Amino acid sequence: MRRQTGKRNGKQAVPWPERKASVRSKLLACLGPLPRAETELEPVTLERTEREDYIRERVVYRAAEHLQVPAYVLIPKRLTGKAPAVLAWHGHGYGDREIAGLRPDGTDDETEGGIHRHFALQLVRRGLVVIAPEIIGFGDRRMASDSGKDLAKSGSCFALASRLLLYGRTLAGSAGVRSVPGARLCANPGGGGPRPDRSR
């Protein structure tokens, strides 16, 4: 086993606190220009399903003018006060349904859940409020040209990424910026239920 020496290529590694600001600015530069103005979320609950140990809501919120984002909000039933909350992004696959314990058609998936292992369910069962937005290019947010294809096997990731690069933008930057406002839903999931602890 290699011993960690704190050196890289023969040079002493710079401690993380000293590198953090530089790494952050480089990452933001790579993501491309980001919009600065916040919009009103105007969330709408489309459906609410009570499970044995959590509540699953399908919501849609406004991330920018003329742009709405669907998401699942998972709320533990046993909450009585504030709780930690997390913004859960799905990876490649069929979108937010895959991490929320659902099949592509929206029915419950009782299996282990493919590569994502229904990780949003694991989090809500550990007592966290989970906001799982649908990332652009996947699930219900695929391009119209991909809408007739198998949801579990197709996405619009490559097509969107290549088009955005022509405008000096990145898919990662666009997906992140348009999904992050969903974290503000953590202020009051489900309308009147327990509030997440925003300090955690």
Overview of this structure, please?
This protein is of the alpha+beta class and 200 residues long. The protein contains five helices and seven strands. The two termini are 36 Å apart. A hairpin with a 2-residue loop joins β4 and β5. The strands form two sheets. Strands 3-4-5-7-6 form a five-stranded mixed β-sheet. A two-stranded antiparallel ribbon has the order 1-2. The chain is globular, with a radius of gyration of 19 Å. The longest helix has 16 residues, at 16-31.
- Radius of gyration, whole Å: 19 Å
Helix content: 10-25%
* Overall form: globular
Low-confidence stretches: 190-194
Cα distance, first to last residue?
36 Å
Tell me the β content: 15-25%
Subunit organisation of the chains: single chain
- The chain-level mean pLDDT equals 83
Instruction: Count the E strands.
Output: 7
Total helix count?
5
Q: Could you describe the largest sheet, including whether it forms a barrel?
A: 5 strands, mixed
**Overall SS class:** alpha+beta
> What strand line-up does the widest sheet have?
3-4-5-7-6
Which H/E pattern describes the elements?
EEHEEEEHHEHH
